[in-house]
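Bug report (template v2)

What were you trying to do?
Predict the complex of my protein with adenosine-5'-diphosphate.

What happened?
Run completed; filing so the output is reviewed.

Input:
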Amino acid sequence: MRLGAIEAGGTKFVVAIGDELGQVIERDAFPTTTPEETTQRIFDFFDGKDIDALGLGCFGPIDPDLKSPTYGYITTTPKPGWSNYNIVKAIQDHYPGLPIGFDTDVNGAALGEAYFGAAKGLDSVLYLTIGTGIGGGAIVEGNLVHGLLHPEMGHMTLTQREDDPYKGKCPYHGTCFEGLAAGPAIEERWGVKGSELSVDHPAWDLEAWYIAQALAIYVLTISPKKIILGGGVMHQEQLFPMIYKYLQERLHGYVQKDEITTDAINNYIVSPGLGDNAGVCGALALAKLAKER
Ligand code: ADP
Ligand code: ZN
């Protein structure tokens, strides 16, 4: 099977050709400009490539509900020109009849990890990215979770740690998870980019404390069989052992599974198996799912 993949981000688009095993054969990337210009670059890449299906993992919020009148839309983004843009229709009009899979970038990444990566073969998986923003995608008992819209796991309210007076960065909620713990919050709180803080800086202990608090909630609500933590901030690998410790402390023996209570936790909460290809392989997985639909 020849599959097309589009990882649509707020700053850049990555396009690729791959197969049903998640192997990437060819790829290209270009900056996100206007919808018209950006879709033209998509067509320039895929025209004549003879793909069997196309997957699109997209920045959001989006409408991924096939039954909705606004299916295929990027909905309320502040990105100029993209608000209420029907990206699926634009692509479908150019490639009539081509199966197209459309979902959030993080749902795509979760599916890619479940098909090809760190969660291969598992039917309940959480993928969380901690980067410019925080977003989560989930597969629960074999299905990507959408519900009313789609989960927005980065925006839940967390309890702020007593020694952290930071006002929070989220324009909607101030001190939600993203407002406390995404890359821009780290940068504003400490006055330098996260990548410039030393590995033993107290920023990371606080960061792990917030991430563990959020993970406790996901463990208790959707009960994933594996948690994958991606995004730029998670390049700080010293975060992992601190996250394990704080999650175990917080759950306090309540979830009696070895994955939580023992050292097996280091195989329960992991980095993406697909590394920086998680987004593109996620879009390939969405294409594969669309082809099988
Ligand atoms: P995006 O979320 O825009 O797709 P990334 O996942 O790379 O992109 O996230 C970018 C954010 O992650 C920025 O806020 C950046 O400061 C932060 N970041 C990137 N690399 C690192 C690093 N090595 N350590 C800490 N923070 C990082
Ligand atoms: Zn928020």
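What did the reviewer find?
The chain has a mean pLDDT of 97. The pocket of zinc ion (ligand 2) is lined by residues 155, 170, 172-173, 176, 178-179 (CB under 6 Å).
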